[in-house]
Amino acid sequence: xxxxxxxxxxxxxxxxxxxxxxxxxxxxxxxxxxxxxxxxxxxxxxxxxxxxxxxxxxxxxxxxxxxxxxxxxxxxxxxxxxxxxxxxxxxxxxxxxxxxxxxxxxxxxxxxxxxxxxxxxxxxxxxxxxxxxxxxxxxxxxxxxxxxxxxxxxxxxxxxxxxxxxxxxxxxxxxxxxxxxxxxxxxxxxxxxxxxxxxxxxxxxxxxxxxxxxxxxxxxxxxxxxxxxxxxxxxxx
Amino acid sequence: xxxxxxxxxxxxxxxxxxxxxxxxxxxxxxxxxxxxxxxxxxxxxxxxxxxxxxxxxxxxxxxxxxxxxxxxxxxxxxxxxxxxxxxxxxxxxxxxxxxxxxxxxxxxxxxxxxxxxxxxxxxxxxxxxxxxxxxxxxxxxxxxxxxxxxxxxxxxxxxxxxxxxxxxxxxxxxxxxxxxxxxxxxxxxxxxxxxxxxxxxxxxxxxxxxxxxxxxxxxxxxxxxxxxxxxxxxxxx
Amino acid sequence: xxxxxxxxxxxxxxxxxxxxxxxxxxxxxxxxxxxxxxxxxxxxxxxxxxxxxxxxxxxxxxxxxxxxxxxxxxxxxxxxxxxxxxxxxxxxxxxxxxxxxxxxxxxxxxxxxxxxxxxxxxxxxxxxxxxxxxxxxxxxxxxxxxxxxxxxxxxxxxxxxxxxxxxxxxxxxxxxxxxxxxxxxxxxxxxxxxxxxxxxxxxxxxxxxxxxxxxxxxxxxxxxxxxxxxxxxxxx
Amino acid sequence: xxxxxxxxxxxxxxxxxxxxxxxxxxxxxxxxxxxxxxxxxxxxxxxxxxxxxxxxxxxxxxxxxxxxxxxxxxxxxxxxxxxxxxxxxxxxxxxxxxxxxxxxxxxxxxxxxxxxxxxxxxxxxxxxxxxxxxxxxxxxxxxxxxxxxxxxxxxxxxxxxxxxxxxxxxxxxxxxxxxxxxxxxxxxxxxxxxxxxxxxxxxxxxxxxxxxxxxxxxxxx
Amino acid sequence: xxxxxxxxxxxxxxxxxxxxxxxxxxxxxxxxxxxxxxxxxxxxxxxxxxxxxxxxxxxxxxxxxxxxxxxxxxxxxxxxxxxxxxxxxxxxxxxxxxxxxxxxxxxxxxxxxxxxxxxxxxxxxxxxxxxxxxxxxxxxxxxxxxxxxxxxxxxxxxxxxxxxxxxxxxxxxxxxxxxxxxxxxxxxxxxxxxxxxxxxxxxxxxxxxxxxxxxxxxxxx
Lengths: 237, 237, 236, 221, 221
Ligand SMILES: Nc1ncnc2c1ncn2[C@@H]1O[C@H](COP(=O)(O)OP(=O)(O)OP(=O)(O)O)[C@@H](O)[C@H]1O
Ligand SMILES: Nc1ncnc2c1ncn2[C@@H]1O[C@H](COP(=O)(O)OP(=O)(O)OP(=O)(O)O)[C@@H](O)[C@H]1O
Ligand code: MOO
Ligand SMILES: [Mg+2]
Ligand SMILES: [Mg+2]
What we know:
The complex is a heteropentamer, with two copies of chain A, one copy of chain C and two copies of chain D. Chain A has helices at 3-36, 42-54, 58-68, 73-82, 90-115, 118-125, 131-142, 144-160, 163-169, 179-186, 192-225, 227-233. Chain A is mainly alpha-helical. In chain C, helix 1 (18-30) runs antiparallel to helix 10 (220-228) and helix 2 runs parallel beside helix 3. The longest helix of chain C has 13 residues, at 18-30. Chain C is elongated, with a radius of gyration of 19 Å. By secondary structure, chain D is an alpha/beta fold. Chain D contains seven helices and eleven strands. Chain D has helices at 36-44, 72-75, 92-100, 112-119, 134-147, 164-181, 192-198; strands at residues 2-10, 13-21, 25-29, 51-56, 59-63, 68-69, 77-80, 152-156, 185-188, 201-206, 209-216. In chain D, helix 3 runs parallel beside helix 5 (134-147) and helix 4 packs antiparallel against helix 5 (134-147). Chain D is globular. Chains in contact: A-B, A-C, A-D, A-E, B-C, B-D, B-E, D-E. The interface between A and B is large, with 63 and 62 residues. One magnesium ion (MG) binds at residues 36-37, 82, 156 of chain D.
């Protein structure tokens, strides 16, 4: 592998991992809020979350640029207050991926929250568990398969994210040139196909590695949650 | 709205709807297979499904072109056998969207299948229901929230699909120029922003309409599945 | 404070310049300078990024519009602006399926090839703007109605022709040269469309090192590279 | 009638059961955790014994040595689960009719109305299972299995959550079912009284072993 | 001690209950579907009455008129559900300790070992609930509530799936709990014998109405 390829590989891994990590807490909070609370404007929030998906990725990318560029209102504020610059840095790539992948993470988590038997949460309350403890010890562990599915979707989507990243932070070698952007660059040079293919294979390898981790986590969770027990307790048929 | 805008709007709606419809049956079958059967190579299939997501959309788009273009092996076969041409037609746009959105549909359906209590399926078997009847009357209805979540993700992703469509069927007004392609075109024009904004709003309106339908279906399913009953049966706390 | 070691020049350039600029950059590096950082993309996206304060010293556009856009907004150093390169518009066909064409009005282009004609989206993407002008000038636009497939950049159009999906295509000479799978049918005469030029300029916040690199881009050494990639290098 | 001789192990629990049962009602008693529910699941076809056979009349349903395993849905046995297992997405009516509706009319041994009336669940028909009380749920589960008119009925503590009055009403009904339809039953219960009233014989289950018949009770006890 | 007077409606079912209870064990009997479980849920704080109050000693837990509603987790009442409601993802041990572990030691009225021993569930500690038999599950649910050392224990047919031997072992244990810890209990059951052994008084529930005390049973019956 050439140094550029290695660089793009690690950058992609870093960006996708960070995007997943950045998305997870707000996705959990939002999924819970949308699923468990009835409030006016709930539908609006729901639609808003979905938004980045339904637009071509350049659009969210440009909006990020307007908002978080060095000249953008939020970008200036971030820099002034925390000294954080996201524009044209890998942090911006993380942000672009996170925004695009966020809806993909929220949906499975919501689904898991919905399918949990609320009576178990109530049973915990009768044992003195205050709401946050119920959430941490009952709701969240029972929703684990949903969390894992959400993370898989989010990570995969981040790995493949191209349009928003390109529009927001550009294609800067070593800083924002993730695998998809590097692949794009290769389509513009003669005989770039072989190189693009190599990078595509690297993307796939990365995704497979992530999938393996998720499978392992999933199997662990299944064991912990006793799904497999259920299956075992009744028949291999 | 200009005629071009109306055209792009309807085309997008048609393409996203068809992509969702095309994805649903194989997604259900595959989700069931991956979730309920242990077989060698299962992991490979799992990875393969995820594939289009982890690559920049042009790559799957280009592969579709190689395979299903008028010169591609499958494309030729389709044309010779069924007289179907997908290259440079809206059917190709449907295909591109479907391929990109497929993994998004499979995951929530799998999740729902996993979270169903297998003992209910076994109870149905003791009442003489053969496997397909168990699936149709127990598994599938109980997985309805997952099906809906999968459809929402698939439809939204299709609405926003840009890269694969562009690479596979190009940007032909009235045939393959969906809203995202129309929007992207406008970003190439210095004063295209206003037009892009109008089209983006149309996309959003379409997505919101779809979301409304899914909410309505979801509420119906919840009522039918008695999730709300559970909630009602124990406390508004 | 005294300037530290020389910083790498940051270039935002149109994607069609990828190959040529990469080569110029390695020459520059070989001359003892730090490897320039080259970010490629669509001219439009790059322009908006420069407008938003992108870390770019040098902007190279594939058409005049987007350079004007930045010029009007005061984001570039107008004094350094120059049309460094030119390109030629060519009609291509899949390799082995080349056809004959006389590049003049009255030629029955519609019957000359089978299938679609691919190019950048007509009137929108730079190559499509030139293509539309040329087709209209040759009065080929009407006969080809309904057979034109637009794409978002030249490379997609090229790929369609390479794969034989389109019977013909209109791309830049530089692109046609990249691919072994297409044959150039003919070049469009220069008068059929507006001149294809690549304006370069330093950005308003460019680092001092960038001026030297821009000078290098105008050197005979660089010009030779550009020519080898099919660009024309107009004499100032 | 029913005869079996099989072994099944799960974790540290080992079940080893052998019996040949004539028709009528066979009571199964035994301490909690002794394997009664497991035995019923094995007979129903929801668990696969590791070895052994199961036969109903002349039909071999399980023979591990010869790789025979007739799946649950082909056995036409009815099972009333200890915890009901009602279909949450179906109304009480649809739960009750799930097996019944697909039967050819001539195989239906009980009518819908009889069952509704005797189990006192007629007023619940449009309700979802989640909105039922514990006893109501148990009655619907019993009704669902009865309406399936099985050729063998497996009952796992079917009356445990019912009050005396209902028990006193349903037990004679089950006896009528037994006498009129001649459906043989395996009846798991902890209540001596139920066994004494209904069963022709009682088997004792202890630590996974099915004891010999401990008592032969006259049919009209 | 516990006093309430509230109304609650769900669909066509109306519950209207009023009582003032002294300490000790109060048995609650009544036909299936009469509202016994609903009453326990209301007292536990898992359902909100539409009107009325609930008071424990001097503490107002519910007063709809004054918009008081102390949530379940602050009431420190223990509830044994009719269907167990064990946490499927936790081992038996973690289920048992769920409420217990968070109690300050001086508020623990029973030790882990006592409960294990008397309910005979010591060998199940590492097991998941899905792998338990019906009776084992019921015992774990009972143990979990007992270990929480609640100031009021609500029991919904806690022994319905147990065999005679276990019942005869657990009933005296509950009596000891009652006498030694003085935890007051509401005990829903269909078994006359249990009520007679354990309860100081019995209330009759019928169609959503809590009857007056029907019997006062001497503590040592
Ligand atoms: N994976 C396992 N490892 C060890 N023991 C298990 C496992 N799964 C189930 N068991 C045990 O199998 C035994 C039989 O359970 P079963 O449900 O058949 O009992 P039962 O006789 O129906 O009891 P009950 O009257 O309480 O319902 C129980 O002791 C249970 O703990
Ligand atoms: N939405 C509803 N509409 C009408 N009735 C309802 C609704 N939800 C519950 N019920 C009824 O409320 C009644 C009280 O139920 P509850 O569970 O309290 O009974 P129970 O006394 O505990 O009975 P069991 O002894 O069978 O457990 C039942 O008759 C039940 O059918
Ligand atoms: O902006 Mo380009 O040079 O048509 O890809
Ligand atoms: Mg049992
Ligand atoms: Mg009850």
